[in-house]
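Table S7 (text form). Paired inputs.
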Amino acid sequence: MGILEVQNVNKHFGGLHALNNVNLSVERGSVHAIIGPNGAGKSTFLNCLIGKLKPDTGSVIFDGQPMLGKAPHEINQLGVSRVFQTPEIFADLTVFENVMIPCFAHRDGAFKVNAFAQVVRDREIREKAEDILEDMGMKEKISLNAGALSRGDKRRLEMAMCLVQDPKLLLLDEPTAGMSRADTNNTIELLSQIGETRGITKVIIEHDMHVVFSLATTISVLAQGAIIAEGLPEDIKGHPKVREAYLGETEV
């Protein structure tokens, strides 16, 4: 059994069948990419995984635990972190403060604003935050205001905020959206390093096929709410159903 098991998930929005009997098994330690044309149901599927949407039918099991019905913060406490299309950071705080807050919340299960002074003094949290930022190549930017960072560095900061929580599963929703090619390549390298040093399982939803084929060990193709193909990257690249689904919109 994989670390993430999705079985017979369906989701309707009125007359629209957004997810149609979706089944997915993600192996522990793998990089599993989910691709598909616009409107395929990728965002709906991801929102079902993180508790933002509840499927009409089906089950989602993470590391032996049922996830359906759990609030997003409860899913996070189980060991699932998500990286959004637009980096979600505290723009008015420093890089260092951004990383300390989720570290404190993960350790204690909650975060109170009036406890921030305690966080700053907490040696264990400070050292962990410093180590993560060093791993992300951001140690020299530790005192900068997060809102002033480049988009690529904001993404690295958001990754640090996820990793400091010691996740078992990292869900990445178009992690290179809006990036230059140089920042995209840096993000690919960063995600590869995370895989090598931490062994975190990753599920990536991504439009950029360069990113997908650089990182993925397994690819699932979602079209019109259903998985139409799944396999190794070399098998998916020339799959006739995949080419038909994209209708020439993306070279795969």
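Next pair, protein 2 of 2.
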Amino acid sequence: MKKRSLILVFLLPLLVHAQESEYNVSSYLDEGIKAANTHHIGEAWLNILIEAEDGFDKNITHATFSPNSTLDWHKHVTVQVIIVVEGVGYYQERGKEPVIMKKGDVIKCEKETEHWHTSSANSSVSYIAIYGSEPTVWTGKVTMEYYNSVAEKLRDN
């Protein structure tokens, strides 16, 4: 409960700022733009809610992945926070066991930690990602073979 409260305290000023700017708070419900299959397999949509700029060095993105999609291994030079708003997905840090993430979960991934996250085999997932302005560093492919082994292990639905 304490972590969720802290996240809400952090997000509230951002949402107020979004209401006062050209951003629309309810826009996170929109699918966004279908992402090119550069660093994932399957279907994904991205909706940039806030881009980092002078005075605020975080990007806030709403991402949605269709069931049975992958996202490649990557890392960020800053902490990344993932807030799952709908569905079920997988999250894994390099060298650790994969876990199921579901609506209401808040995941904090430390800076420079190689990880991947995406939908589960049977459910889409939608999350808000908060991360620094530096580009994502893509470190390796998550193959469908590997993804399927994770799905078999976790059997989410």
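Residues 84 and 104 are 6 Å apart (CA to CA).
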